[in-house]
């Protein structure tokens, strides 16, 4: 199941992507090797710094409290479950976003997951102050609490996995995001062909550097409808282990809603994907996918 864990991390980072991070986060084979400090200096490679900061965000926000998005989740050719992303009411000066993931009955025979994450973002800058996860995986409960400190660009991670507490500290370059809130930040960027994007993002108890580009504007056909969308592609590299790289693709509508239509993460064994199947927004009629049509790009 290590391949599954890394695949889900790849998709998650694609939506920044979304909340596959709530799924299994047991260490992969790379994490079982000797620590970097024990390796020869020549074997240690630093991840290149982001060449520039993110551009200023568009206003007004494309989303508001009450918006709810629902996605189908597929892993390496099999339907795995559902994911919802819901914008909550402002709380203590933050704009919370709740992410829920639950595997379906078929995939639960392999791995059963029920998880919730919360991202607490600044209502104007959309930068996070805190990120939490609570998940039950095959009856094993785990929690994660991540604190972001913008002053010194540090990240403090406290977690409990299989009853064992742990903590770690990281730093980030220009921007530090969490996996749930990053997609909302991406929705507010002034997307245009060739726009470079680079930021650090927390996911699966680690920090990753996401470097990408807005490829072009494409027409996307989903069971949910027809859309013109911006296609973003990039690579996520784990800061403490640069050998771990994941290619990611994201499609965001080119309209005032900036809906995240799909995210795809690739690994050696295949692809993992999240596809928007329904959405409801304040003041708009709810919309849901109809039929069994396949995605067309």
How does the major sheet shape up?
A: 16 strands, mixed
Q: Based on Cα principal axes, name the global outline.
A: globular
Care to count the β-strands? 16
Question: What's the helical proportion of residues?
Answer: under 10%
Structural class: mainly beta
Return Rg in Å. 18 Å
Order of helices and strands: HEEEHEEEEEEHEEEEEEE
- Multimeric status of the protein: single chain
* Strand percentage: over 45%
Helix tally equals: 3
Mean pLDDT: 81
**Uncertain parts:** 1-43
Q: How far is the first residue's CA from the last residue's CA? A: 30 Å
Describe this protein with a few key phrases.
single chain, 297 residues, mainly beta, 16-stranded mixed β-sheet, 3 helices, 16 strands, 8% helix, 50% strand, globular, disordered N terminus
Can you walk through the features of this model?
Strand 6 (140-149) and strand 7 form a beta hairpin. The protein has helices at 2-14, 105-108, 182-187, and strands spanning 68-75, 78-87, 95-103, 113-121, 128-137, 140-149, 154-161, 164-171, 176-178, 196-203, 206-222, 225-238, 241-253, 260-267, 270-280, 287-288. The protein has 297 residues and is mainly beta. It is 8% helix and 50% strand. It is built from three helices and 16 strands.
């Amino acid at each position: 199941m290590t391949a599954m864990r890394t695949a889900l991390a790849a998709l998650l980072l694609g939506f920044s992507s979304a909340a596959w991070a709530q799924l299994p986060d047991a260490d992969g084979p790379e994490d079982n090797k000797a620590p970097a400090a024990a390796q020869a200096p020549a074997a240690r490679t630093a991840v290149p710094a982001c060449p520039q900061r993110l551009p200023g965000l568009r206003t007004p926000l494309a989303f508001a409290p009450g918006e709810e998005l629902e996605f189908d989740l597929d892993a390496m050719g099999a339907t795995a479950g559902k994911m919802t992303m819901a914008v909550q009411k402002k709380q203590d000066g933050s704009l919370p976003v709740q992410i829920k993931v639950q595997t379906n009955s078929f995939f639960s025979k392999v791995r059963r997951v029920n998880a919730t994450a919360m991202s607490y973002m600044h209502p104007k800058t959309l930068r996070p102050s805190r990120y939490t996860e609570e998940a039950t995986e095959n009856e094993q409960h785990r929690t994660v609490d991540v604190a972001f400190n913008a002053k010194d660009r540090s990240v403090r991670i406290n977690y409990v996995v299989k009853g064992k507490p742990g903590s770690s500290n990281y730093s980030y370059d220009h921007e530090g995001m969490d996996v749930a809130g990053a997609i909302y930040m991406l929705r507010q960027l002034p997307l245009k062909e060739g726009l470079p994007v680079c930021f650090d993002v927390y996911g699966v108890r680690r920090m990753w550097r996401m470097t990408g580009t807005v490829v072009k504007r494409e027409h996307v056909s989903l069971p949910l409808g027809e859309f013109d969308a911006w296609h973003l592609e990039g690579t996520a590299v784990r800061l403490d282990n640069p050998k771990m790289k994941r290619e990611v693709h994201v499609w965001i509508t080119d309209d005032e809603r900036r809906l995240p239509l799909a995210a795809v993460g690739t690994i050696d064994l295949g692809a993992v994907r999240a596809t928007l199947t329904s959405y409801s927004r304040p003041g708009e009629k709810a919309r849901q996918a109809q039929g069994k049509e396949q995605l067309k790009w």
